[in-house]
Every structure is written in structure tokens, then in C-alpha cells.
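re: that chain from earlier
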Amino acid sequence: MKKRLISGVLLAAMMLTSLAGCGAATDSKEEAQASKDTVTGAIFDGTLEENVTIRVLENDTAISKGYFQELIDAFNAEYAQYGITAVDANMDQYLDLANDGPYGYGPDVLYQANDVLMQYAQGKHIYPLPVESLECYEQVPEEAWEAYKTNVEGSEYYCGVPVNIQAPMLYYRKDLLPEGWENTWDKDANGVPDMTENWRDMYLFSKERHAEDSAKYGYMKSIYDVYFSSGFLFSYGAYVFGDENTDTTDIGFAAGDAEKGAYVLQQLAGVMNEDCLDDTITTNAYSRLGDGTYFATLSTPDMYSTFLDELAKDYEKNGKDANEAMELAKENLVMTGLPKLPESGDLEDEETATIDTVSMGGMNGYAISAYTQAPNACLAFVDFATSYKMMMKRSELLGVAPARADAAKDAGEVSADLFDRLHNNQIVLMPSVDGVSQIWTPGQTFFIDVAKDAFRPENERKYKDMAALKDGLTDMSQQIYDAINTLQ
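^ sequence. v structure.
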């Protein structure tokens, strides 16, 4: 392989020039594809750069749990004959490539959620990729690729490669179920605790557990967390942006019967404490689930190993040796899908039917910086990292749900469940457009107020009924609209 080193700035210029001229005269799909191939082919021509070091920005959990070291060790052994070495970029995982990349401070390859990566795509700070050439291409479902698709003047490009699906999962402690729960909390006798199957029973169980011991709680989660709480709105017809999450002039948090989802959150806050008003529960859930203070919480699949370690640690504190503690933790920590919601939105309603819970989700993946000096070596790394072997290793060590269909199938029930939820529109992927950054602050403000009502005197509540909740959601949506379309 001949050495081919071109400066990142020159490569970026090539990409921008190609993209600027690729759309005006595309009269057919064939021409659009040819234009696309011209763009990616100018950057990724298959000629590996030799004797180069590529800096990879990975997820902090992947680093702390040892997966990333295994990945780069395996890659470096495979590509040692070309002198290609991958190293930890040793940068904050939330680095701002748009501001730092042009000055040479930034990784060559970066792993992030789709909404973060695609903001870089809009600024042309990451490359469009020849994804059809990757070994994983046929194994990744269309819904996953959609998270990284962008359209430039009639031609479609993909600026990231899906690695794993992120969406809320219910975590709970099987050994904290009440004695004889099969008789009291399994009405349909299916062997699954009722409180893990529907939110009404989770609400009632949480009230009961706290009443029996004021230091103990059932379900605990930070209500202010927009990523997790917005799904309760989506379940009743809300959405983020119109036109399949691309139209930032159409804000849909108040759409449908979204106020029912807000009412569910208000009621759930009532079985928690005021830690739900900020990120306290988000940060302490691992240890509090581990020591038995909390029975259940929501988190993403990639945090499974963290919960597992905390639970094992608590068993060790109570006299178990390390091996026995870990085995007990694996037996008693359950990660499962989301409970169903009451159609009426009222957790006290015994007669209402149930509906599926929809959640916000994300597609974490790899992108390649437009400022790298070794695009082909970077593509080789991405191809290697998304191979079946490495995806299975990532799932094994981190508990994540692989984006590859073959790996997801072999990784187990949770991964298959997430794939099904994505396919059935029960996971709404975070929008891959700039405006998504403006939803968080208004959303947090609204959800904090909703949760605060659970701790206010009845006559001082801000949202006293469904109509008031609807107005609050409408106001929140207007704030988001203004932040995107008026104030910027």
C-alpha cells in the first residue's frame, strides 16, 4: 500500500467543493448515486495511509470497563503491517469538534449519539461515508441508518455508522420483590411482576413500599430529564419536530393527548422525593439501586455493567466473596422493556385499557472528522469496530444493544426487544438536526414544574388539571420554537 497523506484542511476543501456542486443537475437516482460516489470516492479511495496514528474519541463507559482497550489492541494487531495505530484521543467525550477541529484539536474518529454527530454533519465537520463498502452495511437496519442520513441537493449521504441503539430500559431488583409477590403482584399469573408490566402497578407498589419504610422507594427517576420524560408525552401522540423530525417550525410536544403523559409524570413524582426535581436520582441511581434504597429506575442499556458492579459491591459489603457477589448480582439485576401506560393517563384508574409506552432513543455510532489526515485508515478502524466480533464484545462487556441485526440476535432478548421497539415506532430517535439542542432547557423547566406540583399544597399547584398541563406543554413548545426560529 503506498503512503498517501493529505492534510485535513485540503481534504475538507475537497469535500466542500464536491458537495457544493453535486445537486443542481441530478435528474435521476442514477445521477444522484454517481454524484454521491464521486464525493466519497475523492476522500475514501481505498488506499491506506501507512505509518499513521489515528486518535479515537470513545464513550467514557467503554473506556472505564476495558472495552476500548480491547478494541484498539485488536485493531492495532490487525493493522500493524501497515504501521497504523489507533490510540485513545484522551479528550472529553463531549468535545466540540466544530470549534476545535479547524485548529487541529480533535479526534480522527469519534463515537457519539446521532443528534450530536449530525450537527457536525450540517457544518461539514465530519465526512460523508461510503457506507455500502462496510462489512456491517447489510446487517444494520434501515431505521438505524436513517439516523445518520443527510440530503444535499438531491443526493443522500450517510455521515455516521450505527454501533448501538440507546433507549430507556427498566432496571429493577428481583430480590427486592415482596415475599409471596406471586400471589399479590402477578394478577395474570404469567410469572412476571405486575409492577414491571404496567405503570399503574408500579405506582401502587411504590406507594406501598415507601409507606412500609420511609427510607425505601419503589420507582425513582429524575422527572426533569427530558430524554426519559418526553417518552411519556410521545406515548399519547406528541412528537419533537414535524415532517419526520426535520421541520423545526413544527414543535409537537403538546400534540395529541400529550397532557396525559405529563399527568402520569406528575403522579409518579408523588411516590418519589424532591430529588426527582434535578439530576440527583440520575447520578445516584446506581448506588441506591445497589443498596436497596430504590427498587426500580430507568436507564440505558450501556449502563447495565455499572448497575451490576454497584449491586455486587453491596453484596460484598454484606459478607459475600467477590465471585458469589457477582453471580448474585447477575441473578437479581433485571433489565427489561418499559411497562405499559393507562390509556386515560390516570394511574388511579382501575378500568382503563393500557397502551404501549413510547420512548425517546438514540443511535450511537462512529463518524470521521473532516480534519483527519488519514481518512482511509479511519474508515478501516470504523469497519473493524463495527464487525460482528467487536460488536458482540462490546455487548458482552457493556450490556449494549448492537445495531447489527446478527449481533443483536445473538446478544439476547434485550437487544432483540430494542430492535422490535425501533421497528414498531416505539422508539423515537432524537432528531438529527441543529434545532434539537434547543429542546432541553424549556423541557427541563416544564418537567421540573410538573414534578414540583407533587410537593406543593393542593391549592398552590401550577398544573391542577389536564387543561392546565396542555397549556404548559403549548407554552413549552412555543419557547422551543422561539429559541430555534426567532431568538437565534
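The two ends are 48 Å apart (CA to CA).
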